[in-house]
């Protein structure tokens, strides 16, 4: 399956549920679905900026998680989100796990 086909199986609502199910309770209580959607949007903005969303079926995608977390944290802070880097890391890890469950970026 191509990355484009994998992305078609990506469901925002399911991603949010998946992420919430994998977050510690103290983080869940601080977030709305819109907050998580915004973080997901930042993640995919990072992917687009890195060219990961291009149709590169033959190329392996190597995601530098530290760079991704730094990007999301910096942009979330600019937008006024009051989340710690650990909290953002937990959300990013949840989104990456959701993508893994779909086989995206393999």
Number of strands: 0
| Average pLDDT reading | 86
- Rg to the nearest angstrom? 13 Å
Proportion of β residues? under 5%
Overall shape? globular
State the major sheet.
none
- Low-pLDDT runs: 1-6
The total of helices stands at: 6
| Order of helical and strand elements | HHHHHH
- Provide the structure class: mainly alpha
Percent of residues in helical segments? 55-70%
Distance N to C terminus:
10 Å
Structure description:
- The chain is mainly α and 106 residues long.
- 67% of the residues lie in helices and 0% in strands.
- It contains six helices and no strands.
- It starts with a helix and ends with a helix.
Short recap of the structure:
This protein is mostly helical and 106 residues long.
Keywords:
mainly alpha; disordered N terminus; single chain; 106 residues
Map the helices and strands.
Elements lengths: L2 H6 L3 H11 L2 H4 L4 H18 L14 H14 L6 H18 L4
